[in-house]
Every structure is written in structure tokens, then in C-alpha cells.
Specification:
The complex is a heterodimer of chains A (about 400) and B (about 80).
Chain A: H1 4-12, E1 21-24, E2 37-40, H2 42-46, H3 55-61, E3 66-69, H4 72-87, E4 93-97, E5 100-103, H5 109-112, H6 115-129, E6 138-140, H7 144-152, E7 159-161, H8 167-172, H9 184-192, H10 198-203, H11 206-213, H12 216-224, E8 243-254, H13 257-277, E9 280-291, E10 296-307, H14 310-324, E11 332-344, H15 358-373, H16 397-400
Parallel strand pairs in A: 1-3, 6-7
Antiparallel strand pairs in A: 1-2, 4-5, 8-11, 9-10, 9-11
Helix pairs in contact in A: 4-6, 11-12, 13-14
Chain B: E1 2-16, E2 19-27, E3 30-33, E4 36-45, E5 48-56, E6 61-67, E7 73-79
Antiparallel strand pairs in B: 1-2, 1-7, 2-3, 4-5, 5-6, 6-7
The chains are: A alpha+beta (about 400), B mainly beta (about 80).
Chain lengths: ~400, ~80
């Protein structure tokens, strides 16, 4: 999808069309100073605004940019709509991100007149169901790597096919970091090896790449040759998550950890609620803090038994903080919590004594109420302090596509 | 700039081909004609499904919602330049 969040907003509001728009997070005070532009409209991009640019930087580059808060429910709903469109053409759909998907139409293309016809039909139906403003770029090729590169070669509203015979010529014009899987750090290491183009990557002896990147060297070599053996993994086959977490950039600088505690407590509650919705429990709790100077501190603790209780997760975080006696923090910018070592809750042994099951019963009752009337309809009084500070998110991509 | 309103409203709609098209709504005793339904999306609050309609006329853009359990329409947001 092209400039996805911004396009959705321009579709929903005709007064934003043709204007430079940036979709970002919003602090409770209504200012956007400490957030980033999650998506910029095509108009804003033309003026130099880039995705993930800080809002103050975006304002500097494009003073007329209209910053609006993101609406996750809107984007998730639109994603579901386009996934429903895709399902007409193939059951093998890999959801790569909220606005990207791979479709394997090998076995179904002939029924619809070929892959290009399918791409045209998808574009047409998307316009009808979502609107003229929300456009997509489609790449048609024989593997995921090339299909993605092809889709990115023409934006917005592109349709590019890349036949095997044209691959060599096509890759000549591609930058190394345009390849999905080569970020700034890998790029730097490749440059150190004297590899500056995709062609050089493809021609580089495999042992050099393996020496530098271990097993990823094999993948890099194939990428340089335009080969991607990875299959399209349908979303109904995706493995269970390995961890779940939440982080939050504080709306203003906070000088002591004490003042960030109430935010952390809500984050723990949000994580625990998602664990319970997925029928999961986790053993390892990881607390992390980012300071104003962007340096980080983190500590992880493993519990003797797995949990899905927000209070327990929070207390473990506090404990790990106190163990480290990390009271010398500079002003805090971000707090986050992650739970890993996940397993199915129904595989966890029951507590021996009835009293230990009391919290579980209480959580079950509050969950039932929240399932019926909405998130945070009922919650522990300790969470009152953070009410309204963190915007409740309507859902998550992984949860939504199931 | 968006302004959050979150107030109940009365809405006149047309049902056509399995879809709902809001045509007019009353808010604070004022009548707002809907010229375009620009986008429809849905979300959930607890077990209730909420349909959100982004609608507009020459003077402004509005986000109105319909709760399928309480059957209540609300004006969620108003966009004013």
C-alpha cells in the first residue's frame, strides 16, 4: 500500500486531500513534539518528509505539514478488507506487515487470466471497496524478493512485472539497502568488504560472506543473485509469538523512575491482557528504559513459574529495577516491558493451594467484563493514575488477522 | 484539526445493496446534510461491533459511529480547518 496510514486519512477526510499530511502518535496534551511521522502522504514525501522522521524535523522540512493522530482501528479494518479481497484469488497469503502482503498465485492464476490480471482485479476492487485514495503498488515475479523489489520500483499505484530474463538488468539499478534484509548495519559491513552494488554481492565468493555473516552469508549471496527460496507462508500457518511487549514514549521528560511507575504498571497490564487473550503465559520479564540521551538500560528476570498476571509482571519489573539499584537515571524518555519464554496456559500446572488460585479467578472475572464492555471497563485501582495517558489500541495485526 | 466530540446524535440513513448510507444527522439541534460517505470501517468495543462512517459535506468532515448492540449513533470527531 502506498503511504498507507496517510492515504487512509485522506480517503476518510476530503479536506486533507492534495495536502502534506503526517500521521503520528499523539500525546495526551495534544502536542506531537515527541513522536515520529509514522506515515507521510505522497505530497509530504515529495517535499522531503520521510517515514519515521521526528515531527519537529518534518515541520522543519515542510512547515505546512498537517499532523494528525493515527487511528489504528481504521488501518486494521482496511487491512482486513484488502486481505478479504486477496482471499478471492489464493488461500496462500503471507501478511508481511500491516500494509504489505505476499500472494502465491502459482496454482490459481490460470483461473483468473494470469497474475497480471489478478493484480489489475485487486487494484480495481480495492478502489471500489476502500476508495480512490488508498492505492497499492504490486510487483509480480517468481519469488518474494523480486516481487517486493518490483512493487517498490513504481510508486504510487504501480504494477510492475519482473520476468526471469529481466532480473539481471533490473538488479543493476537496485541499491544494496533496497534489498529486504539489508539494513544500515549489514550495509556498513558489506561496504567494508568492498561490496557496494547488488551485482558485487552476487559475484562475491560465498566463503567471504559466510566468514563475515555466518549462515546469513548464504542468504546474502542468493539475494545478490535475485534468488529467494523462502516460501509464501500463509497467515494461518504463522508460528506462535515468542514474546509480547509494550513500550511508551513519555509525553514529557520525567526525572525519576518513581514518576514513570504508573505508566509501567499500565503497560504490564496491557501485556498481560494480550497474553490472556492468546491463552499464553510467560516466564521471563524484561524491563527496559530509554534515557533522554537515547542510551538504554534493561534487565530481565525469569520467574519460577510462568504468569499472565499484570500485577506479577509489574512487581517483577520493580524488583529487577531495585536489584540493580539503578537510581542514577538521567531523565527518562521511554519505558517498556516484554514477556518472553511463552507457553500455552493450559499446559501450566495448577497451583496446589486454593488460595494461590484466587488471583486467577479474579482476573478471569475482570476479563469477562472487559470482553463484554471493552478494554479497561474494570481494572485495579492502582491503574487509575495512568487512565487516559496511554491511548488504548483497538487491536494488533497478528490478533486481527487470525 | 480534529476535535473529539463523542456525543449521541440522531441519524437518517438509506439502506442500499446491503450497505448503510448516512444522509443526514442532527447534532445540538442543528441539521447536517451528508454529501459523501468517504470511508467506512469497523472496530470493536468489548463484544459490540462499531461501524465508523467518515462523512463530509462542503463545510466539514465528520466521523460518526453506530454501535450494533446499543443501536446508538454518536458523533465521534469533527474536522475543521
Amino acid at each position: 500500500m502506498n503511504s498507507y496510514f496517510a492515504s487512509c486519512e485522506q480517503q476518510a477526510n476530503p479536506f486533507l486531500r492534495g495536502k502534506s499530511v503526517g500521521v503520528c502518535g499523539k500525546s495526551p496534551s495534544g502536542n506531537y513534539l515527541r513522536t515520529v511521522v509514522a506515515a507521510a502522504s505522497v505530497e509530504a514525501k515529495r517535499l522531503g518528509v520521510k517515514t519515521a522522521m521526528s515531527t519537529w524535523e518534518a515541520k522543519k522540512v515542510c512547515p505546512k505539514i498537517i499532523l494528525i493522530p493515527g487511528d489504528p482501528a481504521k488501518y486494521l479494518s482496511t487491512t482486513k478488507t484488502f486481505l478479504q479481497i486477496f482471499e478471492k484469488y489464493t488461500p496462500i497469503i503471507e501478511v508481511f506487515s500491516i500494509d504489505e502482503a505476499f500472494l502465491d498465485v502459482t496454482d490459481t492464476a490460470s483461473r483468473f487470466g494470469g497474475p497480471i490480471k489478478i493484480a489489475e482485479l485487486i487494484k480495481k476492487e480495492l478502489r471500489q471497496k476502500v476508495g480512490e485514495r488508498v492505492t497499492c503498488s504490486i510487483g509480480v515475479s517468481h519469488n518474494k524478493l523480486l516481487a517486493k523489489l518490483a512493487s517498490e520500483s513504481k510508486k504510487p499505484d504501480g504494477l510492475t512485472t519482473l520476468e526471469p530474463i529481466r532480473v539481471e538488468g533490473f538488479l543493476k539499478n537496485i541499491k544494496l539497502n533496497d534489498l529486504c534484509g539489508i539494513g544500515p548495519k549489514i550495509l556498513k559491513r558489506l561496504n567494508k568488504l568492498g561490496i557496494k552494488t547488488v551485482r558485487q554481492l552476487g559475484e562475491c565468493p560465498e566463503y567471504i560472506l559466510v566468514e563475515e555473516f555466518k549462515s546469513y552469508g548464504y542468504t546474502l549471496k542468493l539475494m545478490g543473485q535475485g534468488i529467494d527460496p523462502s516460501p509464501v507462508i500463509p497467515y494461518w500457518k504463522v508460528a506462535e509469538p515468542k514474546s509480547m511487549g509494550h513500550s511508551y514514549t513519555l509525553p514529557k521528560r520525567i526525572n525519576t523512575f518513581e514518576k514513570a511507575k504508573f505508566i509501567l504498571e499500565r503497560l504490564c497490564e496491557m501485556v498481560s491482557r494480550r497474553l490472556r487473550c492468546g491463552g499464553l503465559v510467560g516466564r521471563t520479564i524484561h524491563l527496559y528504559i530509554r534515557r533522554e540521551d537515547f542510551t538504554s538500560w534493561g534487565k530481565q528476570v525469569s520467574l519460577p513459574y510462568p504468569t499472565d498476571d499484570g500485577k506479577k509482571i509489574f512487581r517483577t519489573c520493580l524488583g529487577s529495577y531495585e536489584i540493580e539499584n539503578a537510581k542514577i537515571f538521567d531523565p527518562i524518555r521511554l519505558v517498556g516491558v516484554r514477556v518472553s519464554g511463552l507457553s500455552k496456559k493450559d499446559q501450566r500446572p495448577l497451583f496446589l493451594f486454593e488460595a494461590d488460585n484466587f488471583e486467577d479467578k479474579l482476573i478471569k472475572v475482570t476479563d469477562n467484563i472487559n470482553n463484554r464492555y471493552g478494554e479497561f471497563t474494570i481494572f485495579r485501582a492502582a491503574l487509575l493514575k495512568s487512565k487516559g495517558v496511554i491511548k488504548e489500541v483497538a487491536g494488533y495485526l497478528a490478533d486481527a488477522i487470525k | 484539526m480534529y476535535e473529539t466530540i463523542d456525543e449521541p446524535i440522531q441519524v437518517g440513513v438509506i439502506f442500499k445493496n446491503g450497505q448503510i448510507f448516512p444522509r443526514v444527522f442532527l447534532w445540538q439541534k442543528k441539521k447536517f446534510e451528508v454529501e459523501n460517505v468517504d470511508m467506512v470501517h469497523s472496530g470493536k468495543i468489548g463484544s459490540a461491533k462499531i461501524y465508523y462512517f467518515s462523512v463530509s459535506n462542503k463545510t466539514g468532515a465528520y466521523k460518526i459511529s453506530f454501535n450494533n448492540q446499543t443501536l446508538v449513533w454518536r458523533l465521534e470527531q469533527v474536522y475543521a480547518e
